[in-house]
C-alpha cells in the first residue's frame, strides 16, 4: 500500500527472511546456473519497472541508533536494537521494497518490490552489525508466458512473499492474486502460476487487499506440538479488508482446513507483513497513519494454534515505534536464529520511490 506519513515537518511513509525451514532448498536454487549479469544503467527518469535481469550497486549508510530522542536507548518492548542501514542506489528500479525473506544465517535474501521486481543479494555484516548489501541483482517477476507481469498484464503492487522450500508465493495486492514460482526452474527466471484463492479474496478493497503471506511448514521442530494442524497451509492476510465486525480478513489457502478467519483490528492499525517463528508464534507487523496522530508501527504476537476457519485471533503487542524512532513505511519482516541462539528480526521499508521517504533495513534481537 502507498501511504503518506509526516515526520519532522516532512511527509514520510511507513516496509525482512527465507525461513529457517525453507532456506536449505532455497540456497540450492540460488546456486543454480543462471545467465551472467551485467550492471544495469540507472534507467530513464520516472521509470522504475525492471524489464530484464541486471546487477545493482546499493549504497548503505549506517543507523547507529533507533531512538531519535535518546540515542543511547537500545531496548524497545521485547526487542533490542542491533543495527540499521539507509539504502540508496542510482539504479532507477531500486526501491519500493515490500517483502524480504532471509536464509537461515540471515545473510542471503530475496525481496520483492511493489513494481513487480525480484531483488536478491547478500547482507554484509561487521561483527553482529549490518554493514551493507552485496551481489544485488534485480529481475522482473514473470508470468506464465515468460514475460514480465508488468508488461503483459499491467500487474504490479507485489507486496508479499512466502517460501516453501524452493517454492515461492508472491501476493499482488491491487488485483488480489497470488503467483506461485518454482525456483528449481530457473530461480528468479521461473514463470509464475496463479494460485486458486477463495472467491472472497477477489472482493477485498483496492489497495487494501492481500498484504502478507506466510507458509506453515509441515514440521516445526521447536513448536508445540511440532506438527501443526495448519501444516502445508498458506496464510494470506489483508491489509485492511474488514469483516462485519471491523476485523482484518485473512485466509487459509490449501492445507487440511482451508477457510477464512480474522485478526482483531485495534487502534486503527493495518497489517503490512508477518513472519512465523520457529516456536510456532506468528508475528504480525502493523502500521498506522493519521494527519493528527502521525505514524506508528507495532508488532503483535499471535499463537498459530489459535488460527482456524471462523476464528477471530488476537495477541499482545511486543513492539511499538513512532516518528521519534528511525521508521519509515515499514512493510516487510522476517526472522532468523543466529549461531548463538538469538532470534533476530529484520524489517525493511518501502520508499514508494519518493525523495522524501527512505529504504530502511533494521535488525532487532527478540529478547522475550
From TrEMBL:
InterPro entries recorded: Phytase-like_dom (IPR027372), TAT_signal (IPR006311), UCP031900 (IPR014567)
Pfam families assigned to the protein according to its UniProt record, in alphabetical order: Phytase-like
Domain Phytase-like: 93-353
Signal peptide start-end: none
Region annotation (Disordered) ranges: 22-49
Domain of life: Bacteria
The protein's name in its UniProt record: Esterase-like activity of phytase family protein
Gene source species: Bradyrhizobium quebecense
